[in-house]
Amino acid sequence: MIDPSDYGIDNLPFGIISDEGHALKRPAVAFEDKVVDLDALVHSGRLDAESLLGAATLNDFLAEGPAVWRAVRARLRHLLSAAANDDERGAVAKAMLPRDAVTMHLPIAVGDYVDFYSSLEHATNVGRILRPGAEPLPPNYRHVPIGYHGRSGTVVVSGTPVRRPHGQVKAADAAAPSFGPTAMLDVELEMGWIAGPGSVHGEPIPADAVREHVFGYVLLNDWSARDIQAWEYQPLGPFLAKSFATSISPWIVTLDALDPFRAAEPQRDPEPLPYLQSRESWAYDVELQMLLQTERMRTHGHPPLTVARTNLRGMYWTLAQQLAHVTSNGAHLRPGDLFGTGTISGADPGTEGSLLELTRRGANRIALPGGETRGFLEDGDTVVIRGRAVRGAARVGFGELSGTVVG
Ligand code: CA
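Above: inputs. Below: predicted complex with calcium ion.
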């Protein structure tokens, strides 16, 4: 669903498009109900940005760094404003396409992919479900931003079908494991931030260097097979239960566009180690929504049902801490590296970002229009994640991220 108010002049998110008339992939920004073809704009001489010319991904642009990102965005804001002269307006009109006429592609060639676990509420909910009666949070949680390195090659753009993975599972009462399709396919409502221009191997990045190293955010769905995960995850953590697919939204919303929506960080006790402290606050007020539509709902004309509403604001660890932590050992960043926030959950019912939490591991099935219920996902189910930052009249949207399960 296209909502033009998501993509006003204050947003201008970057993506990669193609269209029927011009099959080559090329960069664009979304503007209201249109897209502006940046390759065409550079060709016209109205935008000076070599790294966007004929670019099938945004990686070369990400490598340029924040001064160029900002200059391009400022130039685009001028070209799309009333201050543009007739020649500029003509060039912009020629570079514009209706948004529903373009195909969206993965905006970056994903370098390394890391997924964090930065929602204290999510970690607490999961601990309570999987280890009832025990202390839900692991002892390291309030000290170290926990994460793992994922599989960048299976990051896909919104709209890409997700094939139900096969894997090795073992029920608690079974004598031996078996191999077959997962019976506990789940989603994780997350956001992801994208790195550029990269850093030097061996040189940690301070927490305060966010603006120099982070281009922007996307919506992210970390598809998860809970039964495979439960059997394989000890002692090394997530592996094949996560690596079959990770979906991201096609438009990258820049940190500059998100700046008006920064919020106070949550209280932390104990105080984080010095390398995890930043002078500025790096929490963002982004409203998130997860919806579910089964094949039968689609056939019978039922719209997707909202199953969760949550907000990025409450995350225990911010991107500044994730940035500092992931490079604290000297590991460097490359343009196009992707960092998932971890499942974004609240403490209240209906604010959880996974079916594992929403249904208490399948025990409390979700009732759907038409009489169906769901504990985990079935083939033909479509999951949609929407995100939007709103403050007064200011509004910046992420659009939506969708994926349908196929058998
Ligand atoms: Ca995750």
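Residues 115, 188, 190, 222, 340, 342-343 surround calcium ion (CB under 6 Å).
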